[in-house]
Amino acid sequence: MKINWTKDHTLGLFIGILSPVVFLPLVIFIISQSQHSTFEYVWRQISEFPEFRSKYLSLALIGNLLWFYLFLNKEKYGYTRGIIIGMLCYAPYMIYVNVFM
User: Fold this and answer.
1) Predicted local distance difference test score (pLDDT) of residue 30
2) 2 lies in some domain
3) Among 8, 11, 48, 59, which is least packed by CB within 10 angstroms?
4) Rg, C-alpha atoms of the chain
5) Does 73 fall in a domain?
6) Which of 67, 21, 63 is nearest to 46 (CA)?
7) Is residue 1 part of a domain?
């Protein structure tokens, strides 16, 4: 099955890559509030320890499900494929951090 790459795929790819970066501060804020610690403390954990960075980044990837569901309901499958590919771009980093560090 051949899929022609379109600008919808590219836009979905950019959404899939950039959305976790936008959702990461929100995840950090929620975690810091639930642990009764400061935002700066949790942010320092992420910047100093890759294990924490991988875990919090995987939580931030959940934000992509919102975009995926939105575009899936509007039957814009090019965007949804791009979002999935964008999420898969984070997989090698997470495997590297969790296995080799």
Assistant:
1) 94
2) no
3) 48
4) 15
5) yes
6) 21
7) no
